[in-house]
Amino acid sequence: MLFNTFEYLFFFCIVFLLFVSTNNKNTLKLRNLFLLTASYYFYAQLHSWFVILLIYTTVVNYFCGSWIARDQQQGKSGKRFVTTAIVLSIAQLVFFKYAYLANPTILLPVGLSFFTFQALSYSIDIYRKKIEPEKNVVDIALFIAFFPTLLSGPIERARNLIPQLKEKTSVSWDNFKGGAGLFIWGVFKKVVIADRLAEYVNAVYFSPESHSGSTLALAALFYSFQIYCDFSGYADMAIGSGRVMGFKIMQNFNFPYCVNTFKEFWRRWHISLTSWFTEYVYISLGGNRVSQARWILNISLVFLLSGIWHGATWSFVLWGAMHAVFYLVERFWGPKRPNILYHLLVFVMITFAWIFFRIENSVEAWHVVTRICSDIISPVYWGSSTFSTLLTMLLLGIFMLREYLMYRNILPQKSAWEYLFLLLAIGLFGVSSDQFVYFQF
Amino acid sequence: MKRRILSILLFVLVFIGLDRGIGWLLNNGLNRYFGLNQHSEVLLIGHSHLMLAVDKSNFERGIGLSVSKYCREGVNVADRYEMVKQYLSSPYSDSLQVVLYGVDQFMFTGAGLSKNSYKLFYPFIDEENMNEYIKESADFSDYWVHKLICTSRYSDALINSAIRGYRYDWRNYKVGYLDVEVLKEQIRKGQQRHIHFEQDLIDYFEKTLELITRKGIKVILVNTPIAAPLNEYEPEQYQKIISYFREKAASSPLIYYWDFNPQFSTQYELFFDPIHLNSGGQKVINAEITKKFNKEIEQ
Predict the structure, then answer these.
(1) C or N terminus of chain B, fewer CB within 10 Å?
(2) Which ipTM did the prediction report?
């Protein structure tokens, strides 16, 4: 059941109605139990045994969280149990990722990396005394399995979501309007931009060796927007679903391509993962309160781990390493006041890095890069239908314009007409796909 | 609260209005493109094979009759039966005299054809026949989404066709040449489709002929050229299907069979790929069909 299907819309309407009827101070336990059941049902639609993994992650972190707190009450650090939680949670993740690599017929549980990291934030926050352990197992289970964030994030923090699960949420007209609007915008990004771009990108990357440099450059450019619209579209639908029910889910993207520097890009791209690594890895390694050499090592490690999080292949490691290099080079030799040319350079380098992300064979990806650089002036392949490709480019242009206007706050108020346009565009220009790029992670 | 419910209702109503409006505009353009809203004397029915062999404007000029070219990429025999039914049940069919029906040796081969070809007819879901056909083929949610939301019925290709309908642009052609050696290599590797005789597809074809001839309308089974290596690699099956078409033509004075293969299937410069003609091939075959039509079909 994907967000961009009528099955989800039907599911959500039923969940919302039952949610509203139980969203009272006296029936919060019932509401959360119902939301947990709905979330497990939602996940079981993909594959019923996936739910076992959710239960495993919940049990590990619930008990480890309690034991960390008990240790701390007894004057101990609780380190042994936080380590247990990390090892047992990551072991599950590593097992499935490597099992999948060894045998691609094995089903990789969708969203595993997301809910594992989300659950770990709970145990680590207890260890760091940022939160108290949760007594009610339903609440922690719901925090880990909450259906809007379950498959592709945002990776929520226990300190943000669990308190909301303990309160009656505000189901208001403003939340309904804002949430529904965000959901529609997310669907537009997914089916009108990302999935249309994917048709061209998939056709070119199916046999990159048979395409000219300019075609490969266009495919690389398209992929930059495809992955952004696919992933941020999903995040918008997740945040929108939560908001309709009155939940405030953390932002995951904030106009990442509108910025001038790599540093700023990473503040705005996949915010929930970047901030997770910053909080739980970078800070643990000493952050920037270390020697310069150690700081460089810390930064490199965080980027490499970020790459590995996406998958245990060299191409993801290389993608992480490239961003580490971009970040460090900019830190030491970057311009003090980045101008439009530097902005363009940042975007081009990010686009080149995405080639390694998209093409899992690094050697082939490198050939694509060299082909782009050596054969940029060449005839462009216009796809199986020139009309379709031109239409996609026009829609991408409209999307980019809207993003820019929103970034500049020139278009702050969304009107009903805009939503009408988006809905009609979804109907008319949307193409259906049964996959989100980030489901594989 | 009341105001908010009213504003939601108003939003839904405006959406429905705009959706229906856009749907009507596109549907109208599409009908123009396929000639489904005109009183034609000649109707072309087929898939891309016939689509690329005939130029509607030139053909109309050549025979001096009005032509509806209702050819869709990827339509199988069952789809074509629905297409014929669609035109014949419309108020525009009263002037129809001749149907040019594209045939080839793969007509009764189900493998390789899309099982989802009913989706091509979503724009016509409001027409009774097509509605029934789509309802039988599509799943529940797919059917109702397209039934309720008009804008969801159009793919890029259909939007393009609708625009071309308004621009009176009927051109269909491909530029390029067949690589015969590659084709021969593919055949050596067994990568080509095989000639089958699937009974359900034969039944649909015979139902189609019956439907047309019952109304006293002539049917010309047009076998536009296919590259020779494709006609030669299963000679027995090929002869069997050609004989079948000839028998059909012999069974009724209203049925004709025109085969352009003997004359043109080895003229490889006319082909874009093994089964599609290029723009040069279209000129040649269009002229041949026009000539034969003027000679053999009594008005």
Answers:
(1) N
(2) 0.84
